[in-house]
TrEMBL record:
Tree of life domain: Bacteria
CDD domains: TM_PBP2
Protein name, UniProt field: ABC transmembrane type-1 domain-containing protein
GO biological process, one term: peptide transport
Stretches assigned to the ABC transmembrane type-1 domain: 92-282
Family: Belongs to the binding-protein-dependent transport system permease family.
Organism: Falsiroseomonas bella
InterPro entries per UniProt: BP-dependent_transpt_permease, MetI-like, MetI-like_sf, OppC_N
Residue ranges crossing the lipid bilayer per the database entry: 31-52, 93-116, 137-165, 261-282
Keyword Cell membrane (UniProt): yes
Length: 298
């Protein structure tokens, strides 16, 4: 028998292995695959917005006011003659520009608090968590509306306010995991080996406690997109002529009664699809990252 016949089969290339891995994840969680496809489409639209937008999203044209969808203006124009399609495309950039920083701020504030309170326990845990619970008692939109109105309707203020309001969610998730982990054998072994507290927390506990928080990031990003659009719709978030979906819906709402439906419907549809995609992505991530939830669903 020749040496060629005895040679082992060639290993598949890296792209083939990646494709097989992704196909396996899609089979295990179709919800995640659909959500990821929706968010990937919006991400591509946001990244390439300057090149794929047919017109300047803030260029007013008095000669093209409230034109219906047609060739050359596929989504029509708004009350200022701005191209709705270009504004919807650029609106995805602002949606990601709010959702991602809000999640980062929430994680940076909530994770350390949950890690410390879960490990420390006692009165410090009670005081800190009761303070965080107080933030969750008030309806998020009312509290965000009041704080943003007082601080000013800028993008930075919206991101900081929403991130701080969302941090108790991550703190609760991480704290619950720390409470379950701190009595584990590996933690007792680390303590017995003389590891300092900071090493135990950040080297041994934190990587295991982050699973639940990371699974919730997509869902909380959907919350951030929805609340920021609501603030803009109410007039206290990002202000026109910035191409933000909530502000566009607010501008288009007044034209619905006169039949110019496209001004509000297209940004509203984009908002619904992005929130739906993020929620589906988050639900699929929760199934993959939380074996207990997956087992309970069977």
């Amino acid at each position: 028998m020749s040496d060629l016949a005895l040679a082992p089969p060639a290993a598949p290339s890296l792209p083939v292995r990646i494709a097989a891995r992704l196909a396996g994840i899609a089979r295990r969680s179709p919800t995640l695959a659909i959500g990821a496809a929706i968010i990937l489409a919006f991400a591509i639209m946001a990244v390439f917005a300057p090149w794929i937008s047919p017109q300047d999203p803030v260029a007013a044209n008095a000669a093209r006011v409230l034109q219906p969808p047609q060739a050359g203006a596929w989504f029509g124009t708004d009350g200022n003659g701005m191209d709705v399609l270009s504004r919807v495309i650029h609106g995805s950039l602002y949606a990601f520009g709010i959702a991602i920083p809000v999640v980062i701020v929430g994680l940076l504030v909530g994770v350390p608090v949950g890690l410390w309170t879960g490990w420390r326990g006692g009165w410090a845990d009670e005081i800190v968590m009761r303070g965080f619970d107080a933030l969750r008692v008030f309806p998020s939109i009312i509290l965000a509306l009041a704080v943003v109105a007082a601080a000013g309707p800028s993008l930075l203020n919206v991101v900081l306010v929403l991130g701080l309001l969302d941090s108790p969610v991550y703190a609760r998730l991480v704290r619950a995991e720390v409470l379950a982990l701190r009595g584990g054998t590996f933690v007792e072994s680390a303590v017995a080996a003389g590891n300092p507290t900071h090493r135990i927390l950040f080297r041994h506990i934190l990587p295991n406690a982050l699973r639940g928080a990371m699974a919730q990031t997509a869902v909380r990003a959907a919350w951030a997109v929805r609340i920021s659009a609501t603030l803009a719709f109410l007039g206290v978030g990002i202000q026109p002529p910035t191409p933000e979906w909530g502000a566009m819906i607010r501008q288009g709402a007044e034209y619905m009664v006169t039949g110019e439906w496209w001004v509000a419907v297209f940004p509203g549809t984009a908002l619904i699809l992005m929130v739906l995609g993020l929620n589906m992505l988050g639900d699929g991530l929760s199934d993959l990252l939380d074996p207990r939830r997956k087992a309970a669903a069977r």
